[in-house]
Structures are given as C-alpha cells and as structure tokens.
Amino acid sequence: MSTESTTSISAASPPEFRHPGGVRGILRRLPWLREWLIFLVALVTYEGSRALVIGDASLAVTNATGIINWEKSSGLFVELSIQQVLLNHLDITKALNEFYMLAHWIVTPLFFIWIYRSRRTLYPYIRNAFLAANGIALIIYIVFPVAPPRLLTDMGFVDTLAGVSKINLHGGVLSKWFNADAAMPSMHFGYAFMIGVVAAILVNSWALRVLALAYPTLVFITITGTANHYISDSLVGALVIAAGFVVVQVWMIAWPRLRPTAVRLAGRTTTVPAAALRAPD
Q1: Residue 81 domain boundaries
Q2: pLDDT for 28-47, tens place per residue?
Q3: Residue 274 belongs to some domain of the structure
C-alpha cells in the first residue's frame, strides 16, 4: 500500500473522542461526584445560613408559646404525654436520642444514593424538590424563629438529650453552626416524610412499603418525645417538602415556555457589538 493511500485512510478516519480536561472533564467522567458536590454546597449553605440568621431568643420563645396555645385550642397538644411515656422507659429514650442525632445523616444520603442508582431519570426531580424545600425552610427560619420544646422547661418539657444522654447541642465548636431557634419547620420530619412516601411508591414489596412508612412514624415519635419539635413543626415540615415538589413541578411546566425568552435575553447581554470589535482608526 502506498504512502498516499495510507495518508488518505488516516485523514478519513474519525478523530478519537476525548473528554475535556480540568474540573469539567472530571465531572463528566464521574457524574456521581457532581451530585456529591451539589449536596455538599447545599449543606454548607443551608447550615451556615441557619447559623447566620440566629435571632432574638425572646421572640423565639414568644412564637413557641403561640404555637403551644394554638395546639391546645386545636386539641393537638399531646407532646408532654408522648414525652412522659418515653421518660418512663429511659433505655428507649436513650436509643431515640441516638437515633435523633444519627439517623437523619445516614438514612437521607442512603436514600438519595438508592434513587440515583435505581431511578436515575427520577433522581433530578426528587433532588431539586429537596433543595427547593430546604430553601423554603430557610426563609421560614428567618422570618419566624421558634424555640424548641426542650428550652421551655417551665412548661414541663425535659431536654432528654442533655438530661438523659448528656448530649449538649449548645456547646463546642459545632454549636456555632447550630440555630437553637429553628424548630419550625422540622426538616427532620420533612426529610423522613419525603423518604417514606417516595420509597413506598417506588418499591414493589408490601413489606418494604410498611418499612418505608414506619421510618417517618419513628422520626415523628422521636422528635416529639425528646422535646426537639412540636407536632406543628412536623406538620409544617411535611408541607414544606410537598411545596418543594410543587415548585419543581411548576418550574418544569413553565421553563419550556420561558426558555426561548431567557436565551434571547442572555444573548443580548453577552453579544458584543461588531463595531466594538473594530480596531480604532
């Protein structure tokens, strides 16, 4: 074969595809890493913002008292009764204190890993709804600070974390990242509610469905019985999660109509006029 024909064949061969370099290339090759970074940035922003919006403690107590009065008038105020049952069984109380501190940070990531691996097409929708719900919750923390029940000892509540398990949420380095007056909404329950409902819909086994729905039930008993949240906090937490899904659904419907206008406006703001590119005379 002549050199000319070899050259022709080489020229006709399609170029080898190469991934782009740098951070963008890494994220394209490892899409799961991109998701971890999204959640890491969201977590730091969420927790850091909660710490920055720590407000007036007296206002938080006033708001908490208002919630209790509303619950009493509505027949929902059963927190003290639930806690008394737990205080009669200190071993269970200690276990629930540990569950409160750990499960939130273990079950939630495992849930998203499961969704990412088994329901990849559904994953972005659930992730975006989760992030939107956290944004809504942060706004509520800013405008409506609420002291948790464990701080209202004069009303009969017991701080089981400190009194039973010797866990101090108000001391140490991490306390600077902790907003004690962010009881409403309870995103502990909000996350659990999302996990329970979504998992119950997606799994095929009735046994797994019961297990999925048992998780938010256990979280509800835990956060109420340990005096970390009011019943109202759980109700609002569930509503906030639902609102996150509504926001994303509305956006998915509206964005195809808004996108052409957004692209056109973006083009106008980024395009440099041809006259500006000419060299000066």
Answers
A1: 31-169+177-255
A2: 766 667 777 777 777 777 66
A3: no
